[in-house]
Design goal:
Layout: H1 3-30, E1 35-39, E2 42-46
Antiparallel strand pairs: 1-2
Length: 52
Amino acid sequence: MSEFEIRQLQERIDAGVLLAQKRLIERTKRENGDLVVIRDGKIMHLRPDELR
């Protein structure tokens, strides 16, 4: 696999991760649920109005 192909694959993976995050946030807002994340080593529960 060439460096160019590796870069292309990495870009596609990055785009897929960002899309998954966006869909998770949208779904959490739609269902009025909490999103659990880790910030600075602490577990946090975020309400829909705290999400971007």
